[in-house]
Amino acid sequence: LVCAPTDVACDLLVQTVHDRLQSRKEFQEVNASGLLLRFNEPRRPVSYLFGRTSVLSYSCIHPDTGSFCLPGLGLLESAVVTVCTLRAAWMLSDRSQFDYILVDEAGDRKS
After folding, report:
1. CB of 45 closer than 8 Å to CB of 70
2. 110 by DSSP, 3-state: which?
3. 75 near 31, Cβ under 8 Å?
4. What is the pLDDT of residue 106?
5. Predicted pLDDT of residue 30
6. Which letter, b or e, does each residue of 75-100 get, where b requires 16 or more Cβ atoms within 10 Å of its Cβ?
7. Is the Cβ–Cβ distance between 101 and 3 less than 8 Å?
8. What pLDDT is stored for residue 22 in this prediction?
9. What angle do CA 14, 12, 59 make, to 5 degrees?
10. 68 CB contacts (<8 Å, ≥6 apart)?
11. Which residue from 22, 61, 91, 108 puts its CA 20 to 30 A from 37's CA?
12. In angstroms, how far apart are the furthest CA atoms of the chain?
C-alpha cells in the first residue's frame, strides 16, 4: 500500500509508475492494470481524472453509476501495488492486509 496526502500526489505516483512500466520492453505487452491499483474515494468525481486516462485505467469504477467504488477483495489481493490517499486508507483497513505500507509525505516547499 502506497499512501500520499492528496489525490493529486497519488495520481502523480500512479502516472510515474505507469510511465516507467511503459518505457520497459518487458512490460509493454503486459496489462499493468492487474499489477497496479489506484483507489479513489467514492465521493471523488471521476471527471477530475479525464485528463489522466492512464491513471483512470487503474481505478475502480462502478459499472452502473460510473463513479469510483471500493475495489473487491480479489482485486485488492491481486494488485502488487495499491495507491490511495492517507484519508482513503482507512476504508481499505478492514478489507485487506498489506505486507508493506509506504507513506509519501514529501512536499515541495518554495522559499
Report:
1. no
2. coil
3. no
4. 67
5. 54
6. bbeebebbbbbeebbeebeeeeeeee
7. yes
8. 78
9. 40
10. 40, 41, 42, 44, 46, 59, 60, 61, 62
11. 108
12. 47
